[in-house]
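Action item from last week, closing it out:
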Amino acid sequence: MRVLYILHSSKVFEGSTKSFLALLSGLKGKEWEPYVVLPGPGDLYAELQRRGIQCLSLNYRRSTYPPHQGLKNKFLFLPRLLYWRFLEARAVGQVTDFCRTRDIDIIHTNVSVEAIGVKVASRLHLPALYHFREFGDIDFGMHYFPTHARYMRRLQRENVHYICITRAIMQHHGLEGNSKAHVIYNGILSKNYQCDQALSPQNFFLYAGRIEEAKGVMMLIEAYRAFLELSAEVVDLLIAGSETHSSYAPEVRDYVARNNMSAHVHFLGNRSDIYRLMQQARAIIIPSRFEAFGRCMAEAMFNNCLVIGRNTGGTKEQFDNGLRMTSEEIGLRFSTIEELTAHLIACSNARTAEDAAMIQRASTVVRQLYSLENNAQQIYQLYREIMHNTTEHRP
C-alpha cells in the first residue's frame, strides 16, 4: 500500500516529528511504501532523503489562526490569515496532483492542525487518517480555523479515520464513541532497548522540552527557587530545549538572573545526547500544563530516569496507566509549586530502594505500552482495515 504523510513541520526535534520518524522505523519491512509532504526543506527533509523516502516540499501553514499577541502580530493578523489560507488552497492542488501520479492509497496527516489531507482525500475519494497528537488550544494556544466545532465537522466524513495518542485527546475533540477513532499510544523506543549501564548518576535535575508557557517552565523555576532556599543539598537544574520566538524565554532567563540562580540553572539548548542526560539525572521534571502525551516522560522511563510529572493531561494518563497495570505509582505526581518543591527536596538525596523499584516499574510499563513494535503494528493493522473497508465499498 502507498501511504502519503502530510506533516506540519520540517524540524527534527519536535515531538510529533520524532513520533513520525519512529513510526517509519517501526513499519520498515512491511508491505508499505511511504511518501511525505513537508512545509519546506529543513533538517527533516534531509533526514528523509537519507532514508530514501520520496518527499514533496511545499509552502503552507497550519489550519489555525496566526499568532495575535503583541502589536506587530495584531497588525499582521489579517494579512497573514489570508496568506495562510491562500497557501493552503494552493497546496491542496499540488498534493492532489502528487497523489494522482503516485497512485496513493491512504493520506495520513501527522497532526490534527493541518486540513490539506482531508481536502485532498475528498477530491480523490481516498481514505484519510488524522493523527490527533495535540489538544491544540489548552496546550499550544492554537485555534482551529474557522472554529474548533466547524473544523471537526469537516473531518467527520465517511472516508476519515482518527488516531488519538491518549484518551484525554479523544475526549477533548469529542471523538469518544466514534467507531473510526482509535487510541494508539506513541511508539518511543524498541521494547528491547537497553540503557548505557556504564553511566553513573550526576548531581542535576533535568527539564527537556521547548521553553514556552504551555510547557510550564516558570512553574519549575519557581519551585526550584524554593528548593534552593529549603534544601540542604544543592542540585543544579539543566534545561535542555529550544527557545521559541516569544517573550517567554527571556522572562524565564530574567527571573533566574534576578533571583541569583544563574550559577545553578543551565540553559543547554537542543541536545543530541538527551538520553545520556536522562540516564544521569536525579530526576526529570515534566511541568507542562496539558501535555497531549508526554513523549519526553516515556523516553525518560525507558532510560531509567525517575519522573516528577504534573498531574494533568497525557502525563496523568501515563501515571494512571502505570498505576492500573502495577497497582503502584510509576512516578511522582504534583499539582502545585509546593508539591513539586517537596519532590525536588526528596530527590536531592541518594536514591532509595523505593526510588529504584519505581523506576523499574516505569520501565516495565513503557516497554509494554509505548514500544515501537506495538505502535507500528497497531497502525499497520489499521491501514489494512481501512484498505479492506475501502475496497469493499468501491462501486
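Closing note: The chain has two domains: 2-187+372-393, 204-369.
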